[in-house]
Predict the structure of 3-phosphoshikimate 1-carboxyvinyltransferase.
Amino acid sequence: MQQTQHPGHWPAPTARTPVRATVRLPGSKSMTNRALVLAALAAAPVRVHAPLRSRDTLLMAGALRAMGVDVADASGADWQVTPGPLRGPAAVDVGNAGTVMRFVPPLAALASGPVAFDGDPRARERPIGPLLGALRALGAEIDDGGRGALPLTVRGRGALAGGPVTLDASGSSQLVSGLLLAGARFDKGVEVRHSGPPVPSQPHIEMTLQMLRAAGARVEASAPDLWRVAPGELRPARIEVEPDLSNAAPFLAAALVTGGTVTIPGWPAETTQPGDALREIFARMGGEVAFSDGGLTLRGGGAVHGIEADLHDVGELTPTIAAVAALADSPSRLTGVAHLRRHETDRIAALAAEINGLGGEVTELDDGLEIRPRPLRGGLFRSYDDHRLATAGAVIGLVRPGVAVDDIATTGKTLPDFPGMWASMLGDAS
Ligand SMILES: O=C(O)C1=C[C@@H](OP(=O)(O)O)[C@@H](O)[C@H](O)C1
Ligand SMILES: C=C(OP(=O)(O)O)C(=O)O
């Protein structure tokens, strides 16, 4: 394993030979946190099978427990969720989890008593204002000191009128998902209309609709930017969580950039997860992708090509794609992701700064990145407390000796043991 000159930082291991591995991924963050919310609103206990246990999902479980929901460990690392009347007073730490800060306030509006929300400093800068406006229009009382941001208190009164509401969700699809997930429990259900520039991350809205339907909700999405959830009971009984395909990105990228082979078992044949787009994106960048009984396999062909891609629908894949693009044999142009500037960090600025810090030539666009591959050198790759920046640094480090990531522990937001998984993937190759 290559060591670096940055004590205290994680020396990204270099692959001496092509990576050959099977990587079993933990559950999807997005599905786990939707499952927990739907279970908390259900009419009977719910088994959540194969959930992700990471910072974001433990924060969600903690938020629900604080409001009176029992989230208990069950056999096989499942969670058994026993809903109860939602209640305050309660305090919710959202950390830097977009799903917690946008999915839980609508539940708090249904609680009897005040629920206070705060989180990491960055969480106070992430968009939530349109959700607060929508909840007020649906009958909720919220104290946010006029900031339209965290910290805030939702003064629940045990029920919410619900009905039609319009908001601008161009900042985050989670503003829509949050209203829809709780909508079946509003007295009149909810009719959400988006008005503004296009909503990003459509697959995540589709995931919300599909999981609501599976839980027994009556859902309508027959026109663009308009979604309806009828009032009614939720009875999901059991929710299966798929492997996290967005977290497959750095592992598949490892096969691509080292000319190796990585298999991800349990890759669903059909899914709403945006990570499924990696099959096409990495094929365009030079990988050979195939399903087999063992799962999905990506075989690197040696050459890595640049790509022009609008990533509006799959924004959370951008950091890994940018890392691969920086190692390609031709330039790339990644667009449609202005909203990434208000993710865990300003991902557009951070990716440009860190790749350029290693000798790259990356230009920021308003809504993306232009990446001209240059011979990269070792050096410090800062993560900005962003799990996907940290794993992007790890990908570059596989093929450029001497890269160090400053805070690899930040990967715990969505992966409980990234360094261990990375070391196992490398095996004898490091
Ligand atoms: O609903 C979800 O689970 C998510 C939606 C997306 O958010 P944005 O629409 O804010 O990008 C995505 O980036 C995030 O990682 C997870
Ligand atoms: C944007 C992300 O997370 P969050 O759920 O905090 O928005 C992400 O995981 O890439």
Observations:
- The radius of gyration is 21 Å.
- The pocket of phosphoenolpyruvate (ligand 2) is lined by residues 97-99, 316, 343-344, 388, 414 (CB under 6 Å).
